[in-house]
Inverse folding.
């Protein structure tokens, strides 16, 4: 049962082969057994989970169950959830119990999904390795010496280790796709504005987007049906008709035009990862896809542009953590400024401080035009690159990261090396496009590698169709680590 | 040396929306601390601002009234600074693209009309309040005011005296209350003025270095603060010193300004467009709609009062001091057909009584129809001015109409020639000495005799007729 997909679990629940309480109990047992070595969860609350599960069972008994009622889920610790500690991986919010629910949480609760716990993450979603969590690094279930990726490392590790069938996650510069790739699970980051950011602790508001991870593309589609949709509490939420993201899963891929950006297969891409992507493309060709070469000439510029814009927004977004109303406050201080300085110095980790300082610098008088304005111009060029590329293809394929998961501690002393590994994911966020990571093989040292599928705006159903068809002829997504 | 004072004003106009600019929390004044702070004002993790559309309509209203440009795309920006009553650590304001630019407002100083240019008006949220009393060395934070919508209206440095600055502030105050976008309550902080003051030798083209006097919440303080500040700057320069750019506070108790922070301490606010809010787009239709919902403006009404009712430009300016007064005047003047008389009464007796009772035009116990009834009785000679005042007071106290009071108290002016002649004869017979004096050339005696006649008539005789008949009889 632990290896079942969300789709299968929902069928078992509907057939009364299992109750929500039984399912939750089984997953909680597995979390108890494996979380000590993986550290995928920050908070597990057995009583709360069982209460939710019992409510789901009651709903089903009353004939009011939806498709997913009673199925378990892990939530990234970035989504505010009433009554649960919402730490965002930070000491700053270690004492913060949210008094309200994020839109994503509300939607999951309305669907009857049962919260298994709160998934670990890089502090305030800043990181590519999950080593920046106040609660310690998450381990990659495929290799405990490897990073799981970040920032949604806890969500990815939980799904990979079958501690949860699905998990919510967020992606600001690759934080869904990169850990999904490194842990061998399927993850989707929707078009910016498809999933409400209300209640999602902000890192970089113009780039942050909620999404999900699961074993399969089909499960991702089911979950996207739950969490997507207009929310008037988020001014950047898009007012569009509700859509069924599963609608095109079964479509054949004959005639699909697949774009391969030449810049994604150039210097810097590890040979084994390149081979895996080539093989995946061959599989799609067998399914009838045509391959065309496309160009995204400003890809290299995505790194400096992202690392100006995201820290700039973060520097303001994180100002509210001042120790005045909630969160960490230094125990001793001599005046107001001292309280701010000590509380923030103690409450934030080093990567968060680094980005706040970078962001403060690039917005400063005299530097704003040279950095922030210029980065915004690059952002437009990058979006234009994609527009041109999509004129000749339906989806763009490529690697998610230049290498498979690196070792814990390998890059943590060198932030620039860490930032460079985001090269294939950042452009998508800067352009606001949807993208996925789909398991596509294993590296020479046995670590999972994902295939990135990038869609045009609102082409989630098309991407899911490609991923689902790929998963009909491959079994990388159903492989689980031995634990 | 002769000095010229240069003043520009920044006015924070609190908009009278029901809910806050970025949340559904109430804006009502005076609630228990922090009871009107929603998740958004508390700046909990993950909350987002959503623009209250009523704020945009009100800003457009002011923009149109100032004959300004409405920027159909305008942008909210974050102004970053740390303070406990600013929960997000930034204020959502507008910087590069405000909603209103290039407006103008005419002011009247003495008899002279002058145009003050309005640089811009932008939408922003108010901060909360820090309470330093009552907490024994600690500071309390009340976030009820946080998120209250403001329009910051910035003028060009076009004013040259404290009087002009006050006239501008008053004209803007009249305008925003007239438009119904602000309650105008200065004690509660609904209309707060910052004054940028500098001085320069007469004839010099360049401006002097300015100091900004913050948070003046009455017209009197505004005048006092500018006068003190300008004098201080002049003395500083004449004593060989230099004015340094600074922000200062006015102390109403001492009447002095004192330094709050120098230019060196000025914040770098690191403005950038707020990524949580899309640029505000205003359609042509929205502007047309807002314009159609606007009342006639004071300037237009003033011109119309002069043309239609024959009142003086000065009186028209006073009568358009508030929408309530202007509306009342127009109703009385139209119903009575007595524009000038209505103006005299409103500016004279009515204003005096309101003033004495500390009331506002809106609280007048005599409605326009009844006041017009009184004026008609003055115009048709039924009431002398003196009797009219008596009737007016009785109307105020009883709520009855003029005609009812005239009938009840028998206050009708006596204009019957026979009756007056009879009274005159009696008075002349009873006062031979006065008659003799008048005939001897003492003109004043006539007034004494007339007074006797009025007294005999209990004030009801038509004074003009009394004079006329007396003169005939004594001729």
């Amino acid at each position: 049962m632990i290896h079942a997909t969300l789709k299968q679990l929902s069928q078992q629940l509907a057939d009364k082969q299992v109750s929500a309480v039984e399912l939750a109990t089984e997953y909680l047992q597995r979390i108890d057994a494996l979380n000590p070595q993986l550290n995928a969860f920050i908070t597990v609350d057995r009583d709360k989970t069982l209460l939710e599960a019992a409510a789901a069972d009651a709903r089903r008994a009353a004939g009011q169950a939806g498709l997913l009622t009673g199925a378990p889920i892990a939530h990234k610790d970035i989504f505010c959830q009433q009554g649960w500690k919402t730490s965002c991986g930070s000491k700053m919010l270690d004492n913060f119990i949210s008094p309200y629910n994020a839109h994503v949480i509300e939607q999951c609760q309305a669907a009857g999904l049962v919260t298994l716990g709160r998934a670990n993450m890089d502090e305030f979603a800043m990181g590519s390795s999950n080593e920046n969590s106040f609660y310690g690094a998450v381990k990659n279930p495929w290799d405990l010496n490897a990073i799981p990726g970040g920032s949604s490392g806890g969500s990815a590790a939980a799904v990979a280790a079958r501690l949860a069938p699905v998990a919510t996650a967020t992606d600001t510069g690759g934080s869904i796709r990169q850990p999904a790739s490194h842990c061998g699970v399927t993850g989707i980051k929707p078009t910016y504005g498809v999933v409400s950011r209300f209640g999602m602790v902000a890192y970089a508001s113009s780039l942050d987007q909620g999404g999900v991870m699961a074993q399969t593309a089909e499960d991702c589609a089911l979950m996207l049906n739950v969490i997507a949709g207009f929310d008037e509490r988020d001014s950047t939420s898009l007012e569009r008709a509700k859509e069924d993201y599963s609608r095109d899963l079964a479509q054949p891929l004959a005639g699909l035009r697949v774009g391969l950006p030449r810049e994604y297969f150039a210097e810097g891409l590890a040979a084994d990862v390149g081979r895996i992507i080539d093989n995946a493309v061959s599989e799609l060709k067998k399914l009838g896809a045509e391959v065309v070469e496309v160009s995204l000439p400003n890809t290299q510029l995505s790194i400096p542009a992202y690392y100006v814009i995201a820290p700039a927004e973060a520097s303001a977004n994180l100002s509210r953590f001042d120790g005045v109303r909630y969160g960490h406050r230094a125990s001793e201080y001599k005046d107001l400024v001292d309280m701010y300085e000590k509380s923030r110095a103690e409450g934030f980790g080093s990567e968060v401080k680094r980005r706040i300082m970078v962001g403060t610098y690039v917005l400063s008088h005299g530097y704003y035009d040279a950095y922030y304005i210029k980065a915004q111009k690059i952002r437009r060029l990058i979006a234009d690159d994609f527009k041109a590329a999509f004129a000749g293809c339906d989806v763009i394929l490529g690697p998610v990261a230049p290498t498979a998961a690196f070792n814990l501690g390998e890059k943590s002393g060198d932030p620039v090396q860490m930032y460079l590994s985001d090269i294939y994911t950042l452009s998508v966020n800067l352009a606001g496009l949807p993208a996925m990571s789909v398991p596509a093989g294993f590296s020479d040292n046995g670590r999972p590698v994902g295939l990135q599928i990038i869609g045009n705006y609102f082409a989630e159903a098309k991407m899911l169709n490609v991923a689902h068809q790929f998963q009909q002829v491959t079994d990388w997504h159903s492989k689980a680590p031995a634990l | 040396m002769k000095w010229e004072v240069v003043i520009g004003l920044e006015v924070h106009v609190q908009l009278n929306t029901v809910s806050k600019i970025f949340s559904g929390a109430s804006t009502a004044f005076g609630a228990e601390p922090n009871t009107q702070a929603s998740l958004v004002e508390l700046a909990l993790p993950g909350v987002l601002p959503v623009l209250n559309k009523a704020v945009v309509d009100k800003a457009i209203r002011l923009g149109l009234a100032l004959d300004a440009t409405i920027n159909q795309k305008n942008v909210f920006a974050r102004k970053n600074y740390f303070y406990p009553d600013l929960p997000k650590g930034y204020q959502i304001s507008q910087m590069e693209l405000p909603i209103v630019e290039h407006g103008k407002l005419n002011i009247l100083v003495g008899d002279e009309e002058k145009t003050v240019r309005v640089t811009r008006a932008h939408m922003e949220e108010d901060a909360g309040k820090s309470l330093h009393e009552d907490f024994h060395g600690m500071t309390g934070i009340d976030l009820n005011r946080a998120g209250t919508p403001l329009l910051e209206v910035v003028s060009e440095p076009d004013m040259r005296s404290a009087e002009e600055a006050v006239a501008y502030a008053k004209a803007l105050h009249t305008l925003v209350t007239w438009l119904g976008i602000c309650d105008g309550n200065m004690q509660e902080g609904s209309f707060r003025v910052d004054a940028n003051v500098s001085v320069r030798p007469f004839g010099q083209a360049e401006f002097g270095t300015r100091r900004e006097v913050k948070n003046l919440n009455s017209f009197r303080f505004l005048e006092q603060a500018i006068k003190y500040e300008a004098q201080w700057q002049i003395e500083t320069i004449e004593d060989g010193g230099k004015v340094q750019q600074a922000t200062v506070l006015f102390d109403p108790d001492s009447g002095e300004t004192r330094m709050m922070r120098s230019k060196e301490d000025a914040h770098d606010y690191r403005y950038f467009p707020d990524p949580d809010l899309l640029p505000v787009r205003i359609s042509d239709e929205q502007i047309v709609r807002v314009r159609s919902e606007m009342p006639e403006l004071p300037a237009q009404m003033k011109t119309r009062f002069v043309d239609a009712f024959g009142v003086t430009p000065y009186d028209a300016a006073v009568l358009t001091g508030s929408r309530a007064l202007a509306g009342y005047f127009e109703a009385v003047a139209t119903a009575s057909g007595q524009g000038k008389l209505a103006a005299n009464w409103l500016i004279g007796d009515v204003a005096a009584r309101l003033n004495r009772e500390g009331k506002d035009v809106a609280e007048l116990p005599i409605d326009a129809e009844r006041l017009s009834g009184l004026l008609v009785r003055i115009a048709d000679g039924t009431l002398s001015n003196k009797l009219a005042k008596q009737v007016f007071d009785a109307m105020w106290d009883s709520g009855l109409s003029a005609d009812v009071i005239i009938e009840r108290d028998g206050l009708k002016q006596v204009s019957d020639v026979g009756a007056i002649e009879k009274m005159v004869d009696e008075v002349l017979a009873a006062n031979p000495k006065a008659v003799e004096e008048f005939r001897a050339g003492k003109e004043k005696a006539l007034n004494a005799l007339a007074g006797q006649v009025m007294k005999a008539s209990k004030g009801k005789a038509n004074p003009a007729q009394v004079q006329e008949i007396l003169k005939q009889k004594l001729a």
Remarks:
- Chain A has a mean pLDDT of 97.
- The first helix of chain A runs from residue 6 to 14.
- Chain A touches chain B through 44 residues (CB under 8 Å).
